[in-house]
Amino acid sequence: MASTMQHPEVNFGSGFVSEDQRRAAEQVRTVKERQKQSLHLQRENILSQKTSHPARRTALEAALAQVDAQIESLN
C-alpha cells in the first residue's frame, strides 16, 4: 500500500486530484492567506490612528470599511 507521499495523486473530496492540481490549489490558498495577513495589518494600522479632524476620521472610516470588505471577500 503506497503512502500519499509516494503516490502522485491525492484524494480530494469525491475524486482524485493530480499532484500538480494539489500544488496549484495550495499556491492559491497561500496567496489568499498572505493577502488576508496584509489586510489585517492595514486594518490594525487604520485602527491605531487617532484623529479629531472630522474629514480625516471620515476617510479612516471609509478605508476601514474597504479593508473589512476585502477581508470578507477572501473568506
Helix and strand element order: EEHH
- Look at the structure and give the mean pLDDT: 83
* Overall SS class: mainly alpha
Low confidence ranges = 1-11
**Binned strand content:** 5-15%
Q: How many individual domains? A: 1
- Apparent shape: rod-shaped
The biggest beta sheet, please?
A: 2 strands, antiparallel
Write a short abstract of this structure:
This protein is mainly alpha-helical and 75 residues long. Helices cover 68% and strands 11% of the residues. A two-stranded antiparallel ribbon has the order 1-2.
Structure description:
By secondary structure, the chain is mainly alpha-helical. It has one domain. The chain has 2 helices and 2 strands, in the order E-E-H-H. A two-stranded antiparallel ribbon has the order 1-2. Strand 1 and strand 2 form a beta hairpin. Helix 1 packs antiparallel against helix 2. The chain is rod-shaped, with a radius of gyration of 20 Å. The two termini are 37 Å apart. The N terminus is likely disordered.
List key phrases describing it.
single chain, 75 residues, mainly alpha, two-stranded antiparallel sheet, 2 helices, 2 strands, rod-shaped
Mind sketching the topology for me?
Layout lengths: L8 E4 L2 E4 H30 L5 H21 L1
Antiparallel strand pairs: 1-2
